[in-house]
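tool=predict chain=A
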Amino acid sequence: MLAPSENITAYLEDSSGYRGEAEQVFLPSNLDELGELVRDASTHGIPLSLAGAGTGLTGARVPHGGWVISLERFRSLEIQPGRASCGAGVILSDLHEAAAKTKQFFGPNPTEASASIGGVISTNAGGARSFHYGSVRRHVLALEVMLMDGRTMHVKRGDRVDFPFQALRMPATTKNSAGYYLKPDLEWVDLFSGSEGTLGIVTQAELKLFPEPPAILSGVVFFPSVDRAMRSVEAWRRIPELRFLEFMDGHSLTLLRPRYSAIPASAGAALLIEQNLQSEDDGQVDLWTTRLTEGGALEEESWFGFTAADRERFREFRHALPTIVVDLARRNGFPKFGTDFAVPLDRNRDLYDYYVRRCDEVLPGQYVIFGHVGDANVHVNLLPAAPEQAYKAEDLMLDFARYVVSLGGTVAAEHGIGKIKTDLLKLMYSPAEIDAMRDVKRRLDPEWRLGRGTIFEA
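tool=predict ok
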């Protein structure tokens, strides 16, 4: 059998800080080695946990005993017109770079570019561009998956699940990664995508690629108030070929100002945009002057550009915020508490107003709100600085989850349930609905060995 890795510690946690334990860690290089591990684990009744790049935020890869299998050596990558064939261990940034050399791109743009392809498929990851292109599941064309009996399945878009299951209601949101995707006429690629490594081991994927547009307008639009920004969100959602629509509140801009002195002093919120264009002279460009005026934006002080360098500059601006937030939480000495909730688009403002009201009541000045407002999926980050505040933050997260569910939303828009949020899944689905998911798990993993404790309590 393949010799285990000596470096166990690196595989016992993810970016959430959640930590577990394992007996051994294995790094197979091919299907034969992986199959041997799966069969040996089956013979001895050993549970298996799959490890991606460790960028997850819900503890899905964190083992509760048994063996860890990392697919980081499955790194084959081939780019063709309209598609990419990727090993599960390929890093997202490597896919971006390889696709760009052929003037193509992967539609979804999960925020963490160091995530693995297997990881972003397992959580049905989203990101900024999911506003236009949808989450990762939509772009999976084919999968190679090893099941717990050692068989390897090759499934492609259009192949239907061939066993009976109970279809479940889905939230009326544009993004959802909470539990199994059990819809009528379910396809295998859709079932495995978002299953968080609990139904089979995805080893290879074929993903859809898009040709780069002739031109892209990108910008950071500043507003004097959140109200004007939110009104613009509702107006701008219908803009043709808008690739993403992101939000930052006033607290976010306050944290960013020491690094970015060009942020207007009067700005109380910002929207970040990208739009596909036919050319830099596209008539859509001229419409932005009207949009900014009608929205009450700080037109002269906002930032716009057409070049890749502009897009990179604005990307760094957007990504600097979560880095600052994590650093602030570390200096406070307590973990940050972050939401991954989404609601139907017409309840976006209701959710935002509720977030602000409750945060101001419980942790005034110790929170930031930013993220995917185009998908009604803004993230609240609570930043407690004392033990009693940490307890309050934990209670507030549960309060938020209940409110989101009352609006018809999801408790996991793009990060999955993992091991940390199993209680929240129970707020969203009834015991009977969760049992329907468990039935699918039993069908593909009857001994319940793969990903124990992920999505469902062990």
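The first strand starts at residue 24 and ends at 26. The two ends are 28 Å apart (CA to CA).
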